[in-house]
Amino acid sequence: MRAISWNCRGIGNPRSARALYDMVRRWKPKIVFLMETKSKVKRMDKIKNRIGFANGLIVPSRGHSGGVALLWTREVNLDINSYSGSHIDAIFKESEGNFQWRITGFYGHSETHRRYESWRLLAFLHSQFQLPWLCLGDFNEILLVNEKVGGITRPQQQMESFRNVVNFCSFLDLGYVGTDFTWCNMQEGENRIQFRIDRALANTEWIGNFEGARVYHLVDSTSDHCALFFTNSPPQHVSNAKRFHFEALWSKNEECRNIIESSWGMGVDLSTPEGFMVNLKRCASELSNWSSSVYGHIPKKIQSKRNALSALT
Q1: Which of 1, 30, 45, 271 has the fewest CB neighbours in a 10 Å radius?
Q2: Backbone phi, then psi, for 271, in 5-degree steps?
């Protein structure tokens, strides 16, 4: 089973929609949970169709904020239990045997004084079913002090409230592969703040049935949040990836500079070789996507012109 959870910070932006399409194409998830879509049902239906998903439950945004959506492919057998502007809870029925388990996409309140409402909701969801349970999303809170860098120290009471509901639900953190933090305020130097607020939690019954489950932090420049990619099998990469080439034509377009500036250094430690390579790959991906939408496939156009000239001569 493969799933993606992402606080996309507005999927109406063409770059965000393209980033989601690229994620789905590369990692081939069966389920996608999106938060802060800032979109209505009609727009989300278009997104669902573009990424090739047959089914979905969409909770529209309120004005220009909020909005969650759970999308799944045709072969997934999934029943919705409940939903709100902060969660979507469903039961997943495996195709083989009668095994059922629960998946919940969760979005914690961004306002600190309302965070208790999120924990009360999570406790209520726990009381409804006794099934193997996976819960993933943006909880807007950390469990430990070392899950935050920069800014003022997180009050112990805030973290304690989150830890209490995690323990009440008998959840264990599934850990992660990749960068240590999932959110960045996009500032530099002493003003930079980073959190690990996006995560996947599961109870022991679920973990016992999905040995080898992994959560990957996928950095994307179109949101200040990493996406979570969950899999219990080796990730499938696109095998026909082409080598990146910077085109001189791009440097004459002011938007090229904006693409590089917006995608460089987000949530990654530039002082390490690994972080530097992540930035290079992200910039290359963003520039390639931008070039395709603005200029089309340049090599194909060049070849077409050559063919036309050859025909004339």
Answers
A1: 271
A2: -80, -5
